[in-house]
Write a structure and sequence with these properties.
Chain lengths: 168, 101
């Protein structure tokens, strides 16, 4: 067993100390469906989902969208072209360890360029033309009932065989 | 739809019980690999993708043996008074977004 941070315990203690009276209820499930790959990985087209509060940038580095940190109860699934230049997107995330990482290297948390590369190398069958962006949200119900079905529909429409989920 | 989750938070991922997950014990924000280190990112990505083929039981979490630093101080300091998770500015902004300001 790898030594690891007990985030659930740590965040509970931390926010109680900050004066919050209700503990956050982390997602807790006892089962999940294990859908097998329909064919070998080298023949599968992959899709990518990120919660890193990604903001596309214009030619002069300006935000093309208002940065969003937290999601609402509305549908919030945003496309980003897979070939969008890595230097023209930034993460507005506040959910990373800011003392260890500054999110300036997309490759650490959004492997879109490397997925495109290994598709070219033939290690996977392909990579969707779109990356799907969602926002962090304290509501599990909203993610499950609103955003997730929309991502599934878009992924199926894009001919995706399996999804890579990279939460931040 | 088959999925694989890349995680930096083992306990949260185990609680959520995902079909397949690849856990790398790096600070939050680095689920694929070390910033600026393409070889490490590639190793992490390929190891995680392999789970799409190899895992036969839902809830499987495979641990990477990659190590962030020899010092484990970052594990002790996260969510501590010494290193508040959010800056004061970010905390205030979040309260506004949540309607708790």
């Amino acid at each position: 067993m790898t030594e690891h941070v007990k985030y659930i315990e740590k965040t509970r203690a931390y926010y109680r100390n900050e004066g919050y009276t209700r503990d956050y209820a982390w997602a807790s499930n006892e089962t999940a469906a294990l859908t097998p790959l329909p064919k070998p990985l080298k023949d599968c087209r992959l899709g990518l989902v990120s919660t890193a509060s990604l903001v596309p940038l214009g030619e002069h580095g300006e935000d093309l969208e208002t940065p969003r940190i937290m999601g609402s109860n509305k549908l919030e699934v945003f496309d980003l072209p897979t070939d969008w230049p890595a230097g023209r997107v930034r993460s507005a995330s506040e959910d990373h360890d800011r003392f260890q990482s500054d999110m300036s290297d997309l490759g650490a948390y959004l492997p879109k360029d490397m997925l495109a590369q290994i598709a070219e190398e033939g290690l996977i069958g392909g990579f969707a033309d779109t990356v799907w962006r969602i926002l962090p949200n304290y509501s599990k119900r909203k993610i499950t009932n609103v955003d997730a079905p929309e991502i599934l529909a878009r992924a199926r429409a894009a001919g995706v065989d399996a999804m890579v989920l990279t939460p931040v | 739809m088959p999925t694989v989750v890349f995680s930096n938070a083992l306990d949260i991922t185990e609680s959520a019980f995902t079909p397949r997950a690849f856990f790398t014990n790096y600070p939050l924000g680095n689920p694929i690999g070390r910033p600026g280190d393409r070889a490490d990112q590639r190793a992490g990505l390929l190891a995680g993708l392999a789970l799409l083929e190899s895992v036969t039981k839902a809830g499987t979490v495979v641990h990477s043996d990659r190590v962030w630093t020899d010092s484990r101080d970052w594990m002790r300091l996260i969510f501590s008074a010494e290193q508040p998770f959010l800056s004061e500015e970010a905390e205030a902004r979040r309260k506004v977004e949540l309607g708790q300001a």
